[in-house]
Amino acid sequence: MSRNPEDPGCQDPPVKAVVILVRTHSPGNLGAAARCVKNFGASLLLVSPSADRAHGDARAFASGAEDVLEGAAISEDWDGVAAKADLFVALSSLRSRGVRGLPPETTFAALAQELEGGRRVGLVFGSERSGLTTEEVLRCGARLRLPSVPSFPTLNLAQSVAASLAILAERKSSPGEPPLEAPEDRNAPRVRMSPPAPAVLLERFLRALREAMAASGYEKRLSSNAHVDSLDELASLFKRAHPTTREVSLLLGALAALTKAPGTRGTAIGEKLPSLRGSRRAPRRAPIR
């Protein structure tokens, strides 16, 4: 049903989120998702798409959103999108996968607050055939699932994009009651709350932490009898804490100081760790099953 664009009550604010489609297979889904993105004023980014956006089905299902479809940036890998958002959120039902070691679960209301605060939120959707891999979920700072019956939790890709943006738009326009807080202490000093660190900085710290732990032998010792990568559990802790840019910078500085310490100083295992300066990528590791 169409609405009168001249009615002031119908002028909903756009949802300034980034919709990130990973390994999209169907041209029709790609075009339909682009149309949903335009419906809500979001932006579109594609990671390793199998579908050709010039395909006739893609253009037909976009129907009026060809500009969004054609203008979407394409990245061949996950590293190419690291700076495109401050918070990446994995949209996944997880099916039978356990949550141990995965990023913390969030809510649409919390994401609406992030957007209102000026943070760039990336909504990450996996392939129609298999969804997001565990490794892809781990690259995100939070995870979210659409409300559905447990016996059949999966939706079509374009439907998932539309539902997510619609719920987010509703939460932005009707934020509801603020959370219950303790009474304000008028004598307490005023503290300016800093926003959480951007995803690219937190990922840099977690990569450095993993490399340092691997070099120390701690990762192997900790994970030898574990089903889930224990360092992913540590990463989940930092993601739940939402550290600020300054706090992550301090952690990076402390880690760099520990890895540069001469002899046995600054290490818990009695051996010097290599410097992480100039380090770019962590060693590849098997996905969690």
Q: Total number of β-strand segments?
A: 6
Structural class: alpha/beta
Order of helices and strands: EHEHHEEHEHEHHHHH
Distance between the termini: 44 Å
Query: Segments where pLDDT lies below 50 for 5+ residues?
Result: 177-192, 263-289
The CATH architecture of the largest domain can be named as 3-Layer(aba) Sandwich
Rg, nearest Å: 21 Å
**Strands across the major sheet, in which order?**
3-2-1-5-4-6
Helix percent reads: 25-40%
Q: According to CATH, what is the class of the largest domain? A: Alpha Beta
Whole-number mean pLDDT? 80
Stated plainly, the CATH topology of the largest domain is called Alpha/beta knot
- The 3D shape can be described as globular
Number of domains: 2
CATH superfamily of the largest domain: SPOUT methyltransferase, trefoil knot domain
What fraction strand?
5-15%
For the sheet with most strands, the description reads:
6 strands, parallel
Helix count?
10
Describe this structure in words.
It is built from 10 helices and 6 strands. With 289 residues, the protein is of the alpha/beta class. It has a 6-stranded parallel beta sheet with strand order 3-2-1-5-4-6. Helix 4 (108-116) packs across helix 6 (157-173). The longest helix has 18 residues, at 199-216.
Give the structure's gist in a few sentences.
By secondary structure, this protein is an alpha/beta fold. The protein is 38% helix and 9% strand.
